[in-house]
Design goal:
TIM Barrel, globular, six-stranded parallel sheet, 16 strands, about 40% helix, alpha/beta
Length: about 550
């Protein structure tokens, strides 16, 4: 976005108009001549509704702040998906000064966009990927820009990233510890700005000059396609040999549940968490993961095909940042990643200790992923690596292995027509990672911050023995969907909100457990926090988990007394 542009989400009509008017009045003082309305919903499943809202904004502008002389120029920005006919028609009707479209995620929309673009509206062509770290293929970008220029001319075209660069790190040139060839394939925020300038110069150049300008960029793109760093024949043969039975457990869920009860001997309402002390009385333990910097970065450090940056921090939420691994090549597991520490922890207790792994979909979603092959193929490679780790944990004696898929829903495409395809291959990858476990081995998974109503059938198809979810802040209302579809597995709805420093009293936890029992039934219920305790201190964690154990025991005792 140009430096003279202000931005806001076009959601609330009155607030949007008020901001537009304030910018018009104060534009000389704040030095803003353009106003960008971020409207990604126009390109999503609610595109038609969002387009109606956009029209209402312009219709409600009775004072003409949007269009009168001296008013700010209005730029509407869409991204992460393509615009469809109803939204395009509404945009054309309001004729903004500029329309931004994401031609990385949806390059095929260009023809329709050019056909609908009003005569006085500029096109901002998002041809540089703002959500990933790879250097732009200049020829692919220029094919789109040449088409746009032929249709509307240079004077109505802006060259832009597909979205805000907040999603990528600052400068790849600082990553001197990375392999030099790999570093040459990268473009962080600063490098992407350089790519904008290069594309602008190339677009205006004659053919011979264009070739000279693009020679270095083309060389780097070609290097990545053929590099031994990106291609592993053994991994590719293994993926090609996969068959449907590789994604099927050896016994149905009901039979496995009986075997788990016999092997584990757990009480009703078994308690577990991610990391704490045996002295609290938890029924199923975890070693606490003190060696793990992050649930994805840890595995990226140990899997072939990944590289770790030194300065590649990006915002996760609020003031919290993460350093996603860079997934550049075919993925494999050179050695076991968690077995030694699991064996040590299990050797200190008679209670079962869970093996803890991050699932293939979450590793995919929370990495900077190679863009030279379909994501589903990359995810299958990760799944095979996690499958090998599950096998080693089981061989070492682990009775329970948890494979977390915190980011499963996060990967959903915006367009509903694409969501089912994604969920099918994503669930297939989870099953590939876990299906080799013997029937007597209990497979857990965990999902964060998810609404399950529209994808509950896919979640059931994961065929996990135990699913733990965030539920405390919903007052267990989230469990209604599991009752409505008769979900077959066991469920651990979180009763302790780990995002708050507040220690919930026993009475509150007992009440939530009672609500969960009403919806799920005691025989399938686990007792656990919403998520891991990474953001909490020792004192509050011990107190809260102690109350959680007491609440579970009180519910068991109350049933006996009744």
């Amino acid at each position: 976005m140009p430096s003279d542009t202000a931005a806001v989400a076009l959601e609330d009509v009155a607030a949007t108009l008020a901001l537009i008017e304030s910018i018009r009045v104060e534009r000389e003082r704040i030095r803003r001549d353009r106003f960008q309305g971020k409207a990604p919903r126009l390109a999503g499943p609610a595109g038609k509704t969002a387009a109606v809202t956009l029209a209402r904004v312009f219709a409600a502008d009775r004072e003409g702040a949007l269009v009168r002389a001296g008013g700010p120029a209005i730029c509407i920005a869409t991204y992460f998906a393509g615009l469809r006919a109803p939204a395009l028609a509404r945009i054309a009707a309001v004729a903004p000064a500029e329309l931004h479209v994401d031609l990385v995620r949806a390059p095929r929309q260009l023809g329709a966009v050019l056909g609908a673009l009003p005569a006085r509206t500029r096109l901002s062509a998002g041809v540089i990927d703002g959500r990933n770290v790879w250097a732009t293929d200049p020829d692919r970008a220029l094919d789109l820009l040449d088409s746009a220029t032929a249709a509307i001319g240079h004077e109505r075209l802006t060259i832009a990233p597909s979205c805000s660069l907040v999603h990528v790190p600052y400068r790849a040139a600082r990553e001197t510890a990375l392999d030099a060839e790999l570093r040459g394939w990268l473009a962080f925020g600063e490098e992407k700005l350089g790519e904008l300038i290069l594309l602008e110069r190339a677009l205006a150049a004659e053919a011979s000059e264009r070739d000279e300008l693009l020679a270095d960029a083309r060389r780097r793109v070609a290097s990545r396609r053929t590099s031994a760093h990106t291609n592993d024949a053994v991994v590719r043969r293994r993926v090609a040999a996969l068959r449907p039975e590789h994604r099927e457990r050896a016994a149905p869920l009901a039979d496995r549940a009986r075997l788990h009860r016999e092997r584990l001997g757990l009480p009703e309402l078994p308690t577990t968490t991610i990391g704490e002390q045996e002295a609290l009385g938890l029924d199923v333990l975890v070693h606490g993961e003190p060696e793990r910097n992050d649930m994805v970065e840890y595995f990226g450090e140990r899997l072939a095909g990944f590289a770790l940056s030194e300065f590649g921090w990006v915002q996760s939420y609020g003031s919290r940042c993460v350093k996603p691994p860079i997934l550049y090549g075919d993925v494999s597991r050179p050695a076991s990643m968690t077995v030694r520490r699991w064996e040590h922890a299990q050797g200190l207790t008679d209670r079962p200790v869970k093996g803890m792994l991050t699932g293939p979909v979450t590793i995919l979603q929370w990495s900077f992923v190679r863009d030279d092959q379909p994501r589903r193929e990359t995810c299958a490679q990760i799944a095979l690596a996690i499958r090998d780790e599950v096998a080693d944990l089981e061989a070492a004696g682990a009775a329970i292995v948890q494979v977390d898929e915190a980011a499963l829903r996060e990967g959903l495409p915006l367009l509903r027509g694409e969501q089912d395809v994604y969920l099918r291959w994503a669930i297939d990858c989870f099953r590939l990672a876990t299906a080799l476990a013997r029937p007597e081995t209990q497979i857990h998974t965990h999902m964060c911050y998810s609404e399950f109503g529209e994808m509950i059938e896919h979640i059931a198809r994961m065929d996990a023995d135990v699913l733990s979810i965030e539920a405390s802040r919903s007052g267990m209302e989230l469990l209604e969907v599991f009752r409505d579809v008769d979900y077959p597995g066991e469920i651990g709805p979180g009763i302790y909100d780990i995002h708050s420093p507040r220690v919930p009293p026993v009475e509150e936890l007992t009440r939530l457990l009672a609500l969960a029992e009403e919806r799920v039934g005691r025989g399938r219920l686990w007792v656990n926090p919403d998520c891991g305790l990474k953001t909490r201190g020792w004192s509050e964690s011990r107190s809260a988990l102690g109350n959680l154990v007491v609440a579970a025991r009180e519910r068991r005792a109350a049933d006996v007394a009744a």
